[in-house]
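Incident log, structure service

09:12 report received: a user says their structure output differs between two submissions of the same chain.
09:20 pulled the input from the user's history:
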Amino acid sequence: MYVGISPYEGPNIYTLIPVVSQLYGLWHLKGGMYSFVNAISQLIVEFGGIINTGADVEEIIFLNDRAIGIRTSQAIEKADIIVCNADFPYAMKNLIKDEHYKNDYTDKKLSELKYSCSTFIIYLGLRKKYPQLSVHNIYLGENFKNNIESAFEGNLPESPTLYIYCPSRIDDSMTKNEGECLNIMLRVPNLFFNKITWDDVTINELSNKIIMELKRIKGLEDIEENIVYKNHLTPLDMERRFNAYGGTAFGLSTTLTQTNYFRPHFKSDKANNLFFVGNSLHPGPGVSLVLNSSKLVTEEILIESQNKD
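09:34 re-ran on a clean worker, output below:
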């Protein structure tokens, strides 16, 4: 469940995740994950870097087996090294136009790979505290097996199993009032199934179903009347806003043949100055592993720079 695969089909090595969490705990970034993004952005600027967020990247440009720059919606930017943090399948399909530089990841190959499910997320701001909640909560709906596997059959669950994240239990900076903020995640099919229309009707029905499930939890019976903020994220949003291939939430599925070393590698085989980071790559999905992928890329770039010197 942690990496977007069926608990009945995925490698049992992932049972280590809850064990490690229970034994050693988890880190929390004060202010949420985006506080890390802000800290890195500040560091880049302090070192003289420039961050341009006002243009769409349309293509990675190559010449003589090297990546020499990118084409954006505004201009062509030349570069000695390119690090691509777009979702890897999206980058291969849309940003790399020349088949030679796709290596093994042609459009045909991408269509044959297995992909993780997506998620539907509700964001709630509440006017009161709910001490019944922990930071991380898992609510198991009825008929667990059928409903947890519905995401891999193209259907929405009848009785949802929910992951409820409540960071305000330990971090007051996450709220502006004396209440709580919640992130409620439901696993749903990715967009490759093409069975679900993510319109207002679907979103409202699913949101209401989730709220009804929350009200069944002891101590949360009055949660609906204490909502002061509500928003959502759908698989369609993930595709449109973040270029998540097929609207997947965890990138390539972590099946046995697509896990760890068997995932796409972070360095291009055709252009040795092109690097990739993200959850579809080695070592895997999730914030901690994605940060590890960027650490590996950084170390490789530094090693190559030292060798050139």
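09:41 both user submissions now match this output. Likely a transient worker issue. Closing.
09:42 reviewer note: The domain at 117-242 is CATH 3.30.9 (D-Amino Acid Oxidase; Chain A, domain 2). Residues 287-308 form the longest helix (22 residues).
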